[in-house]
């Protein structure tokens, strides 16, 4: 027995030494390689230069002879430029994508599949970003940073009417009705308790998903419109109730410049992005605006918010996948994400949302519950065909019943999402 234990001990030591020598050898090999890793990012990142510097410093410890070449792009033409590099087989090594842009490239095999465990906080990534970076169960793009939506409200109007920030959907609706019945609305027929344009589908979708509904789902490898399901119909009815009772905004309009309505005294509330808060302040007076997460129909929860943001992906044609993976891991770790929070954006993980303070805190709370569009490579065509915009507009203006609007949209979804 002792002999067996001794042999086992010797074998274990030998194995450990083998791994030790392997680690040292790998470390020396990494330190010896030379080259350049090219990163395409948006200029927003200049606002958190310390995070870039921190990532570069960590990367340099492992690859001291590899240069990090960051090239800032623009949202207007970055995909056109990327596709040119894909054709020429001369791609950058890391690319920043808006979270609605990824699926097309993942489905086409243009992105390298990634090992989720290689990145910090991957078990607590924000759902809206994690879903965006995942296709057919594989991760192709790492969550980077986010922006969420919350209800922006006029604190002076709330105070004048003796209203409290709602913690339930029923209370939110009651507040809206009180505002709609007040002199603010009765003296101005264009005044909205909640300014909610009919085609603002990012906001309307929150009612849909809060009820347990969804736009579409996969059944036996095919996409099927899910708007006619009972839960989806319930969510669409919630949207119609809010639109009918609280909003005087254009039933066929979009959310473009909705903050001007709040600032100009044409509305008491809107459902907006964090950056809209200051723009919604009348005369720039920030004491007259505040925010809170949209309450859910489920007590104690928030309605899912559509999460905007960015992910980082590695083109499959990159010649430096290992370097690119290391840099992305260094850039999205806890330390760098914390620096991004300090610069004013939301982190990629729920575990750091508690760092967001002040006026941005309600938007961080809202980011804990999010929804995202179906992960189909054809989703962009759904938006181009104005399917979600028309769905909610038809419901808001009453040109179709909820059931008919849902049925018509489902027919289009079934065609577009499954087209080759």
Give a nutshell description of this structure.
This protein is an alpha/beta fold and 420 residues long. It is built from 18 helices and 14 strands. The longest helix has 31 residues, at 2-32.
Structure description:
- This protein has 420 residues and is α/β, with parallel strands linked by helices.
- It has 18 helices and 14 strands.
- It has helices spanning 2-32, 49-62, 78-88, 102-107, 127-132, 155-160, 169-180, 183-186, 201-210, 230-246, 258-263, 276-279, 321-331, 334-343, 361-366, 379-384, 387-397, 402-416, and strands spanning 35-41, 66-72, 94-98, 134-135, 138-139, 141-147, 149-154, 216-219, 222-225, 269-273, 289-292, 305-306, 308-313, 370-371.
- The strands form five sheets. It has a five-stranded mixed beta sheet. Strands 10-7-11 form a three-stranded antiparallel beta sheet. It has a two-stranded antiparallel sheet with strand order 4-5.
- Helix 2 (49-62) runs antiparallel to helix 14, helix 9 crosses helix 10 and helix 17 (387-397) packs antiparallel against helix 18.
- The longest helix has 31 residues, at 2-32.
- The radius of gyration is 25 Å and the shape is globular.
- The chain starts with a helix and ends with a helix.
- Mean pLDDT is 93; it is low at 1-5.
């Amino acid at each position: 027995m002792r002999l067996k234990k001794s042999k086992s001990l010797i074998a274990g030591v030998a194995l450990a030494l083998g791994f030790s020598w392997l680690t040292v050898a790998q470390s020396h090999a990494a330190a010896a390689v030379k080259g350049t890793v090219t990163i395409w990012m948006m200029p927003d990142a200049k606002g958190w230069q310390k995070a870039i510097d921190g990532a570069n410093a960590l990367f340099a410890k492992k690859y001291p002879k590899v240069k990090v070449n960051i090239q800032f792009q623009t949202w207007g033409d970055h995909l056109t430029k990327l596709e040119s590099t894909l054709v020429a087989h001369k791609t950058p090594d890391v690319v920043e994508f808006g979270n609605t842009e990824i699926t097309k490239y993942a489905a086409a095999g243009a992105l390298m599949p990634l090992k989720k465990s290689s990145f910090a906080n991957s078990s607590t990534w924000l759902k809206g970003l994690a879903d965006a970076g995942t296709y057919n169960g594989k991760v192709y793009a790492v969550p980077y940073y986010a922006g969420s939506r919350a209800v922006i409200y006029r604190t002076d109007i709330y105070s004048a009417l003796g209203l409290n920030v709602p913690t339930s959907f029923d209370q939110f609706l009651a507040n809206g009705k009180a505002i709609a019945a007040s002199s603010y609305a009765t003296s101005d027929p264009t005044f909205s308790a909640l300014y909610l344009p009919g085609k603002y589908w990012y906001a309307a979708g929150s009612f849909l998903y809060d009820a347990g509904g969804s736009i579409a789902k996969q059944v036996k490898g095919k996409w099927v419109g899910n708007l006619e399901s009972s839960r989806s119909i319930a969510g669409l009815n919630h949207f119609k109730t809010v639109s009918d009772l609280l909003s005087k905004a254009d039933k066929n309009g979009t959310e473009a410049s909705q903050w001007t309505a709040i600032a100009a005294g044409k509305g008491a509330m809107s459902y907006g992005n964090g950056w809209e808060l200051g723009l919604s302040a009348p005369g720039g007076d920030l004491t007259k605006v505040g925010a809170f997460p949209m309450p859910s129909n489920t007590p104690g929860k928030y309605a899912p918010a559509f999460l905007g943001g960015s992910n980082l992906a590695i083109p499959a044609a990159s010649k430096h996948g290992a370097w690119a993976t290391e840099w992305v891991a260094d850039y999205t770790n806890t330390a760098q994400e914390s620096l991004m929070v300090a610069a004013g954006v939301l982190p990629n993980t729920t575990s750091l949302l508690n760092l967001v303070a002040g006026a941005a805190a309600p938007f961080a709370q809202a980011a804990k519950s999010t929804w995202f569009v179906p992960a189909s490579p054809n989703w962009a065509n759904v938006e181009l065909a104005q399917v979600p915009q028309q769905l909610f507009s038809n419901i808001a203006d009453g040109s179709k019943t909820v059931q008919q609007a849902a049925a018509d949209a489902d027919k289009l979804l079934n065609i577009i999402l499954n087209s080759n």
